[in-house]
Amino acid sequence: MYGYYKPPFSIEQEGISISVENNGEHWIYRRALGTDKVEKIILADGKRLIINPVEPLNTPKEITPYLLIEFEKTLLLAGGAKRRIFLTFPIEIGVFISDRGDRNIQLLDVMTLARQKFTLYGEVSNGILCKHWKSKVYSISPSPDSLQEGVMELTLRNTSSDWASISMAVFSAYGMKLYYGSDGDAFMRARMDILNRNTAETSFELQHISGELKSSPLRDFKARKEAFGVYSLQKLGFVPPKFYMGWGY
Amino acid sequence: MITDFDFLDIRLPISNGNVTLGSVLKFILILSFSILIAKVLSLYLRRSLKDRVSKDVCETIVKIFYYGTITIVFLSNLSLIGISPSALLVAGGVTGIILGFASQNIVGNLISGFFLMVERPIKIGDQVEISGISGFVTDIRIISTIIRTYDGLLVRLPNQQVFTTNITNIVGHPVRRFEYTIRIRYSDDADAAIFLIKDLIDKEPFALLNPSPSVFVSDLGDSWVNLTVRIWAPVSEWFGIKTRVLWNIKKTLEENGIEIPLPQRIVRIQSDPKKVPEELTLPVSPEKEIESVINYEERVFA
């Protein structure tokens, strides 16, 4: 489903149908997912549509830029150790409209097939609202349903000398960088530095994926594309791309 | 030769001789021009900060810039009207006392406004309840706070009143809890009802996982079993969820044969099998019987 489309076109996959039709002097964008239907009129010619995975923080409503991934099993990391694990994250599909050469990109629509749930990280009085996702912990890259889940490579680094018991990680959407392969798999690479008993820092790595994903369909990393993000289109202001986990992990 | 502008050099009797009508006009012009410039720059500042910071922070920065500019221009040009800023400081004590007595309320509101901006118990856009008035804070000005009630009315509250009264900030925390009491019949399975309600909450995206929701039997009433449902939700979404989930609970319970009971009272009539029923006759006195008959004739045959 992911890729560039020149109107008119029509695609249908896993219950999602997207089409752009010419209606005389304008174009009509239609999207249906179950009972949820979107119809927009495009008053422009010579544009193209880009469909790619986006940060999973836009549906059903953009109320927080933070994603909390809860691990199905708690991890114990020795002091000073560094390990790499794989997690899954929910996928949201973004539809953008742009000029040729990816100029003047505008978000048209966002949809998702993944479960949506929110949670609070921290205290009721000053905690942070997060989109919630529960993931199994994998030692090698899994192959989930590409329209529902993506793969996150997470490098855990315990900078303290104590054991760290890790059951969750919180990420800021402002630093997220998603990539997708030719067969639709979405991928992110992040790191989590354990600072002490209660605090950690998470961030995303922007460099391209190396050929380490032996079991992943993404091993053909040359075919991988960088996805346009909803948050990267916004003006960032003073929001830092890293997230400081001050209420435990 | 006397020109048309010579009147500007007229020395004013209120000064020590250095202040002319021209310098006073110059002071007024500079102040007016600086107010104009500050307004234009505030407009640009507000526009550039709009997408970068929250509305209340933006408004605070703009106000500090606006009033700061005017104050600096005012103080730096006081010499034009024969007032030295250092002399103003000396005179400030006496003037302050006089002004304080003369304008207690205004100064009180001004200082309260300053503390409201520093302490920030409320921000622009917050939903609050102050002195029995509920609504959205639309502006926090130097001496007053503007609230738009839920009915769309504009209410201006003096800052002194806002600062000294109890303030309930409905959106002060990121999440809040709401509660329902659901009644089911004694004949219904309370465990099944709890399971159905929990399942419904789990499907609602904005019903938070943490703090976790709770559903439990809270009371055994005269005619029903009370279930209490407590859900935490983001402050921006709680009202929508509250109305949506309640109706969904009602529909789901009814679909599964669990009904919300009507008030009922069980009346038990106990009978004694050994007792022989007797015919009931009213004990009527003869005088009353005659009277009733007489009355009957009067009514019918009269």
Which percent band covers the strand fraction of chain B? 15-25%
Major β-sheet profile of chain A: 7 strands, mixed
Total tally of structural domains of chain B: 3
Helicity level of chain A, as a percent range?
under 10%
Low-confidence stretches of chain A: 211-222
Strand content of chain A: over 45%
Q: What is the β-strand count of chain B?
A: 8
* H and E string of chain B: HHHHEEEEHEEHEEHH
Strand arrangement across the biggest beta sheet of chain B? 4-3-2-1-5
Name the average pLDDT of chain A.
85
Tell me which oligomeric state these chains represent.
heterodimer
Helical region count of chain A?
1
- Rg calc of chain B: 38 Å
User: Share of helix among residues of chain B?
Assistant: 40-55%
The parts of chain B where pLDDT drops under 50 for at least 5 residues are: none
Backbone shape of chain B: elongated
- Compute the number of helices of chain B: 8
* Whole-number mean pLDDT of chain B: 82
The chain pair with the largest interface is: A-B, 21 and 16 residues
- What is the C-alpha radius of gyration of chain A, as a whole number of Å? 19 Å
Q: Report the major sheet of chain B.
A: 5 strands, antiparallel
InterPro entries (chain B): LSM_dom_sf (IPR010920), MS_channel_1st (IPR049142), MS_channel_C (IPR049278), MscS_archaea/bacteria_type (IPR045275), MscS_beta-dom_sf (IPR023408), MscS_channel_2nd (IPR006685), MscS_channel_C_sf (IPR011066), MscS_channel_CS (IPR006686)
Domain Mechanosensitive ion channel MscS C-terminal (chain B): 179-260
Main location (chain B): membrane
Organism (chain B): Methanosarcina thermophila
